[in-house]
């Protein structure tokens, strides 16, 4: 299992846990998804953004 760094969107703290040690908020993955020109669902994601 790989440990992934996560970021708290509320206070900006980086951690490895699912919740922030400073404020207790939920952490998210700060890295965007990889781009693939063969993305089968990209059309639907772009439509959902509008």
Describe the model.
- With 50 residues, the protein is of the alpha+beta class.
- It is built from one helix and two strands, in the order ββα.
- A two-stranded antiparallel ribbon has the order 1-2.
- β1 (6-7) and β2 (14-15) form a beta hairpin.
- It is elongated and about 40 Å long.
- The protein starts with 5 loop residues before the first strand and ends with a helix.
- The model has no long low-confidence stretch (mean pLDDT 87).
List keywords for this structure.
50 residues; alpha+beta; two-stranded antiparallel ribbon; 1 helix; elongated
Short structural description:
With 50 residues, this protein is of the alpha+beta class. The protein is built from 1 helix and 2 strands; from the N terminus they run E-E-H.
Count of runs of 4 or more consecutive helical residues: 1
Q: What share of residues is helical? A: 10-25%
Structural class: alpha+beta
What is the approximate shape? elongated
Radius of gyration: 15 Å
The beta-strand count equals: 2
Strand content: 5-15%
Low-confidence stretches: none
Strand order of the largest sheet: 1-2
Distance between the termini: 36 Å
**Quaternary class:** single chain
């Amino acid at each position: 299992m790989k440990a992934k760094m996560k970021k708290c969107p509320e206070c900006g703290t980086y951690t490895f846990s699912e919740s922030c040690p400073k404020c207790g908020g939920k952490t998210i993955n700060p890295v965007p998804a990889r781009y693939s020109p063969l993305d089968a669902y990209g059309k639907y994601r772009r439509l959902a953004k509008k």
